[in-house]
Amino acid sequence: MQLTDISVLETVSDWLNERRQVWLCTVVSTYGSAPRPIGSLFASDGRSRAGSISGGCLEEAFLKMINQGEFSSPACLFDYGKHHNEEGSVFELPCGGTIRLLIEKLEPSQESINQLSVWLKAEQSCLSYCRRVKLESGISSIEAEGQSSNQAVSVEDDSVSLHYAQAWNVLLLGISLVSQHVAQLARLAGYTVKICDIRKDLAGDWGYASVHGGVDVSWQSADQFVEHNVNSCSVVLALAHDPRVDDLGLMSALESDAFYIGAMGSKRTTATRIERLKRIGEYSEQDISRLHAPIGLDIGSKTPVEIAISIMAEVIAKRNGIKLAKVT
């Protein structure tokens, strides 16, 4: 499975450093309707909340149970949809079915802060790993995995193992308002994001640097950038509208095993770019067919944020194996 809630982990880290007690929930399994995928995270300090494990109803019930003194052990498994209320009747999810949660009670200790820091570092490495939580003590550990496990979650008598696959990453070629919005949306969707450019005179136009919770620009040629960062879980997006950036990066991407390759531009720009790529790189029609251009789904997008939404919608649809209408 993939971790799609990095922002939740970052919020939990902030809460622990502010000396707050935190309850962290991970979706372990679902039966019937599944409002969130396995591995989804929800956290609360008893007042504030981060993330989601349902459409909203379960989070409210969970906060109520915390404030009633439930979930006092360091870690436990809890089946929502099989427990009883004060009147003795069974709670049910509004959408039907049940959901099993791993609930960890994190004390604002240095040990909890250190364990979460190790988890964040494992996620930022973008490699496959397993997180194992001991149910009696709540102690967690991280182990690297050579390849993605076929099993997302494994439950034993005394522990729960959560297997996280190699992270999906978005490689952005070129600074633009569209690339800024794409970076924000991609990170919210759980992708790691990196961006490159060679046009240092545009440095002031990038408003989503790490100091603002975003990513810093790697000032290097796009081909070197792609070659260094690309893998089979990579999404390469050429958004510079400048051949000096876009073309070099696309050539490197077409020679890689990148999962998705896309380029922004009109039909005329796309046709010119394809002719240029064929002439310079001698790419076949099969090679060129990997290029999604003009990029994005046909949602009538005009503004930078709308274009970014159409781009990420296409990326997510492609990743989920869903065919939707293309931009015409």
Automatic annotation (TrEMBL):
Residues 171-315 form the XdhC Rossmann domain. Pfam families: XdhC_C, XdhC_CoxI. It comes from the Bacteria. Signal peptide: none annotated. InterPro entries: MoCofactor_Util/Proc, XdhC_CoxI, XdhC_Rossmann_dom. Residues 15-64 form the XdhC- CoxI domain. This is Xanthine dehydrogenase accessory factor XdhC, putative. It comes from Shewanella benthica KT99.
